[in-house]
């Protein structure tokens, strides 16, 4: 078990706080759509290097689909966005119970984020949001993690990161961040609770030890000769 006291929870969006389906009403096969999203073209699009229209053109050429089909397929996937209510509720509870700073860090275009953000009943649960399309960086780039840590003034060892992709988790771990792969919502919530419970107990131990040391210092400072205080008072009166 970690010996860190955690102050910050950093969360991915896709397949952590919301889910989507690759099934569309177009000629684009679901497996091809997944390949598109894993392609270098999509990575550049998520960094904000070019427009969505240009992205559709590039993907159409690369995967032998018309621009219209690619564009319509993207529209269909957006229609499938749905909130993971259990995870969202858990995050709200964890923020309150452990006094956490909650951060969003996601690979996503700003257009997609605008749609996803509307799924959350209360966006104020997130203290800060970092979207790849806005910052020009993308997970698993270590620079992206460093950027988030710097902007939120977070010590790596005091942060927990949750993502659905192992490569992103490994990148976070390389900086000293406690990171976990979200395989399913219930298991992830349990792991977060267990980790944060241990952190809370460790915080209590640290505070208790500090209080004892402070008390001992005060007692020691009062251990002086009984004759000293009256003499000092007498000197002042004179």
Determine the N-to-C terminus distance: 63 Å
Major beta sheet summary: 5 strands, parallel
User: Which strand order do you get reading across the main beta sheet?
Assistant: 5-4-1-6-7
**What structural category characterises the helix and strand content?**
alpha/beta
Q: What value does the average pLDDT take?
A: 89
Whole-angstrom Rg: 26 Å
Shape: elongated
Helix content: 55-70%
Order of helix and strand elements from N to C terminus? EEHHHHEHEHEHHEHEHH
Poorly predicted segments: 228-238
Question: In total, how many beta strands?
Answer: 7
Q: Please work out how many helical segments DSSP would assign.
A: 11
- Percentage beta strand: 5-15%
In short:
By secondary structure, this protein is α/β, with parallel strands linked by helices. It is 55% helix and 11% strand.
Layout: helices, strands, pairs:
Elements: E1 8-11, E2 18-19, H1 30-37, H2 40-46, H3 52-63, H4 67-79, E3 82-83, H5 85-98, E4 101-106, H6 110-117, E5 128-131, H7 132-135, H8 142-151, E6 159-163, H9 166-173, E7 178-181, H10 185-221, H11 228-237
Parallel strand pairs: 1-4, 1-6, 4-5, 6-7
Antiparallel strand pairs: 2-3
Helix pairs in contact: 3-4, 5-10
Tell me what the structure shows.
There is one protein chain. With 238 residues, this protein is α/β, with parallel strands linked by helices. Helices cover 55% and strands 11% of the residues. It is built from eleven helices and seven strands. It has helices at 30-37, 40-46, 52-63, 67-79, 85-98, 110-117, 132-135, 142-151, 166-173, 185-221, 228-237, and strands at residues 8-11, 18-19, 82-83, 101-106, 128-131, 159-163, 178-181. The strands form two sheets. The chain has a five-stranded parallel beta sheet with strand order 5-4-1-6-7. Strands 2-3 form a two-stranded antiparallel sheet. Helix 6 (110-117) links the parallel strand 4 (101-106) and strand 5 (128-131). Helix 3 packs across helix 4 and helix 5 runs parallel beside helix 10. The longest helix has 37 residues, at 185-221. The radius of gyration is 26 Å and the shape is elongated. Mean pLDDT is 89; it is low at 228-238.
